[in-house]
Amino acid sequence: MKIPEKLKMVLLFALFILCPKTCYVCSWLAEKCHFFSDVEGLNIASFYHGKTSIAECLSVTDIKEDLRGLPTNLLNLLVQMDLHFHGVLAPNSFSRFGSLENLKIAGCFSEIPPEAFNGLTNVTSLTITALDSKNCCEVALDFSHLPSLTSLFISHHDLSLLALNVFEKIPHLQWLYLDSVCLKDLSDVLCRLANVKLLKLFSLDDWNIRLQYQNCSVFNTTDISTEFSIETVDLLLGKLEHIDEGAFKPFGKLSLLHFSVSNTDFLEDLSLIGVHQISKISAIVDVLNVDDLCVAAKLYSVKSVDVYYKTINLSLTSKGSVGCKEIGYITLENDISREIVNLLDVNSVFQIFSNLTSAAIYRHVLRSNDFQSLCASYPQNVKQLINMVLQTIRIDKIVSHQFMCFVNLKTLKLVMSKISVFEDFAFIGLNKLKELNLHRNKISSIHRHTFSGLHELRVLDLQENPIIYIEPKSFGHFTNLSSFLLGDLNFPPNMSLIKLHLSDIFGVIPYNLSNVFISSGLRPMHLVIGSNTTLNNGLNLHIKGQYVIVEDCNSLLLTSVFTLQIQAAYMICENEFIGKYVPSVVSLEFQSMFSDNIGDLSVINQLVHLKTLKLEKLDLTNLPNMDIMFHNLTKLETLILANCKLFFLDGSLTKDLKALTKLGLIPKDTVNILQTFVDHLTQLRFVYLEDLDLYCSCDNAWLVSWIRDNRKVEVVMSNPSMQDLKCLTDNEVDHISFVSYVTENCSFDLDFVFFACSSVFLCIFIVVVLMYKFVGQYFKPFYHIASGWFREAFRMKEKQQYRYDAFVSYSSKDEHWVIEELLPNLEQRGPPFLRLCLHSRDFQLGHDIVENITDSIYASRRTLCLVSRNYLNSNWCSVEMQLATYRLQTGPAGKN
Ligand SMILES: *[C@@H]1O[C@H](CO)[C@@H](O)[C@H](O)[C@H]1NC(C)=O
Ligand SMILES: *[C@@H]1O[C@H](CO)[C@@H](O)[C@H](O)[C@H]1NC(C)=O
Ligand SMILES: *[C@@H]1O[C@H](CO)[C@@H](O)[C@H](O)[C@H]1NC(C)=O
Ligand SMILES: *[C@@H]1O[C@H](CO)[C@@H](O)[C@H](O)[C@H]1NC(C)=O
Ligand SMILES: *[C@@H]1O[C@H](CO)[C@@H](O)[C@H](O)[C@H]1NC(C)=O
Ligand SMILES: *[C@@H]1O[C@H](CO)[C@@H](O)[C@H](O)[C@H]1NC(C)=O
Ligand SMILES: *[C@@H]1O[C@H](CO)[C@@H](O)[C@H](O)[C@H]1NC(C)=O
Ligand SMILES: *[C@@H]1O[C@H](CO)[C@@H](O)[C@H](O)[C@H]1NC(C)=O
Ligand SMILES: *[C@@H]1O[C@H](CO)[C@@H](O)[C@H](O)[C@H]1NC(C)=O
Questions:
Q1: Pocket perturbation via mutation, ligand 6, pick of 456, 459, 480, 484 by most ligand atoms within 8 A of CB
Q2: Is residue 809 predicted with pLDDT exceeding 60?
């Protein structure tokens, strides 16, 4: 439901006034957007990889409203509309985000006026897709208000509704990607491209298309000069139902043509589409007729072929026999749905494709002596071969001297093929081989001569082989090895111990070793280094096993370890955690299994070079010195505690982590996180919280407002919102909402103070209004009287001197009484002895009479009016009375 803005404000105000639960209000208004300024390091979605300043808004119903909280200097924005939304994309929807470079909109709008993109002067890349990938959205698009656009991606929008000149109006368009745009006819796309001059790349991906002859007037297909100048055209087409002759003629060249035909003769289809060059053909066919393929390769100057087929026919006619000599790259892939039964004659393959740089063969049965006979008869055919991949193949064994003639091969991948037998000298002749990957085979024993001849090898991958036996010096040939991956050591059960002696198997440990993985799978391992070699580079060591015991921890080789990754219950040396012996380590990852024997992990505080630390599946509750474990780690930038058991996290742990920028917390059990935990983390920028389960305690209450309000640290939670955060009550059974616990029990917070202040203010306001209504007319006199009083009092304080204590205003007809009675009583019979001012006695001669009166009134502290019948009849007396009243109202006029 959409709540109008005004109503929202009124409700917000009402809630603010009426109840202290303001944090509910904020979450209820919570943004649909997440903003990430820097997400490197912790894996979030791949969309963000390497990008900075990204916002993602999901289930949006009103773009302006839902994006309100985002910073305006955003560079990358993804807006995913609500599934049921089908409104207009309003004009100026994004005009706040003038810096935006990359905009992605997912949703079906009823209308998108060109003004919708107003203000996006810096957008270079725009993506428009639908949420539902089954249908096409039916809306006209116009990008003329995006002056910098160079890259445009449209998917699941009906192209035929776009104006014919839609792409011409984008002056700098260079890359155009159309994916599933509901083409009924190829003309739909070709006619729209006719005048787009700068286009470098055009990619069309549509599954069900009929390639019908285009009929726009701008093309005259009998005239080759109407070709596009597009450099790269990628066509990824599904089932071709029908092709009109010359359908793609205007393209001239294709860099990639990917299509699927059930028709056995795909060559016939190719001849129809009308182009004269295709760099790469990628096809899904039932039968691959190599003869046809070679004819086509010649015709279209094909350089690269990638075919997926059910059966392959390798027999050649004279026409095809020369055609495949220019192909550099082939991938031959047999249908994945079948057993691996199809035999492929490697000898024939390399006879046909005699100039290959790269060959990949998947899912075939190979004969091992085919390679031998190839080397015997056509050694020059594999001279150029640099990469060879043989994956998921069936072959009995790799016999000796089998690859003799592959003299330039640099990479050989013989993987996932269940090969168990490698004869001695099997790799002789591969003098330039840099990488040998034998991942996921059935190699069980390795002998001194298995790898003879591989002097240049840098990478040897023997992962996931059930290795039972390694003869000493088996790896002695690899003087320049840098990456060595070995596993899973699975020595026979009667050997109680799997013991790997590194110096024994190498003879001399290669100085350039920089990456070592050793696994004993589910069994324990004893590792002996047996050498004090130090390496040229820092070593990245990854050890896996049930548990691992290193026998010679004092070996200097361990001081070369820069990255240590342990996947074992524990890795110890003389009953202590290995950490102590790898003082140079910069990155440490330890994934345990809640084992008790891990040793004293607090030695981690000696690894002062650490920048990354990840601890997983550890029981930190019974570590004696847990609180000092992270001390001294002043260079640590990333800390991840995943699935660790711990009771609480506080400031004593983090006091030295001054450089920490990224923190990941995935607690195993319920925890308390005290506010002091983040107090020292001054550089913290990013926090990832997953499966957070708190105790119901006010100690944790700070988290609610911290997550919500702090602007410096970006907090990403696996819980969809704060409201879903649960906490465990004292009885250790019930889980209740953490936010409601906090508001009910820990409410003396800022919200409450605000509430109290606003309530008091409201009360005063109401009282004032009511008073004004009912006693308003008395305000003005009351004000004057009061201010007179105040001023008078003020004057008294100033000890201002008056000439007289009182001015006596009387009618001269009453003079007798004044002189006889009043004067003696007030002036002489004191104390106090007052000085009176009488007009008959004290008025100054020669002055104007009104001036005299005024002066006397102002020179007197008080005015005494002798009101009698005579007084009321006298004009002068009424003047005096008025002047006295006037003075009463305005106060003394500064005269002395
Ligand atoms: C657009 O890009 C230019 C050059 O990259 C930059 O100078 C300008 O500040 C940007 N505009 C906005 C509004 O960020
Ligand atoms: C091309 O021809 C088809 C049918 O012959 C027609 O439906 C379509 O509108 C034409 N396209 C153009 C751009 O003329
Ligand atoms: C196409 O070009 C050819 C030769 O260049 C010309 O003979 C023919 O009339 C043109 N067709 C149209 C429809 O313009
Ligand atoms: C294999 O290809 C050749 C040459 O094109 C052809 O003569 C032969 O009939 C094909 N064999 C099969 C079984 O299709
Ligand atoms: C073989 O391929 C190389 C490039 O890899 C090319 O220079 C050479 O001309 C090709 N030889 C033949 C006979 O096509
Ligand atoms: C060893 O490999 C390095 C690169 O990893 C290379 O620079 C060096 O030349 C090689 N040394 C020898 C003796 O092959
Ligand atoms: C372990 O058993 C193998 C046969 O399975 C045998 O050849 C070997 O001598 C035995 N080793 C020991 C130490 O008993
Ligand atoms: C390596 O050096 C340490 C002392 O630094 C010594 O105890 C150890 O025996 C040496 N190991 C080898 C194999 O020489
Ligand atoms: C690291 O800190 C602990 C305690 O905080 C201290 O005992 C230890 O000596 C420090 N280690 C180093 C190498 O500084």
A1: 480
A2: yes
